[in-house]
Amino acid sequence: MNLQNWTDAILDRLEAVGTRLEINDGAELFAPGAYGEVFLIVRAGIVRVEQTGPSGRTVVLYRVGPNDSCVMTTSCMLSDIPYSGFGYAEGQVIALAIGRERFNALLASDAEFRAAVFRAFSLRIVELSEVIDDLLLNRMDQKLAQWLVDQGGQRPDIRITHQRIATELGSAREVMSRILKDFERRGWVGLKRGVVQVWDIPALRRHARSDAV
User: Fold this and answer.
1) In terms of Cα–Cα distance, which of 67, 88, 86, 81 is closest to 36?
2) Across-strand partners of 59?
3) Distance between CA atoms of 89 and 25, rounded to whole angstroms?
4) What is the pLDDT of residues 67-103, one digit of tens each?
5) What pTM did the predictor assign?
């Protein structure tokens, strides 16, 4: 989601005082226990933010796209508490880094920068609330059906593991495998090693919207 908070005028000013970083695909940007020392605005690419619970279950919280900032990083910078999740580059990422001292100075002196930081923070909190509601309220088979509809509309053969799907949807691999096997039995998908073939998008869409148990 592009929050459209960082205007060209703000970005031009930040380019003059920040540092451009080039981050390789799959690189870990932050991890639980680390303290935020730089405020990042993604300029190109995607950063995936995940959280892993005590049981080992991992949930994708959100993704940070071009001209977005990370609410977890903002929280760490403002409160001086360590990260509680992981951030990974998806593809090559270019980001603008603002050190802690400069970040605090801009918050104090630049009203436009301050407003953009807190607007992005607030909107991302709303998005996180929706993620939590989705995890608590929606049936996992319906969530998976809708995810397959969304992905299958772009490419019918999705190269992904069951574990990766479970992480995306905040579930366990065993649960995803069981539901996918059921979808395969119904003729909605085909399963190969590392690939899910989406065969019947209309049926999956109906199931995603169904109230039936």
Assistant:
1) 81
2) 51
3) 5
4) 889 989 999 998 889 998 999 999 999 999 999 999 9
5) 0.65
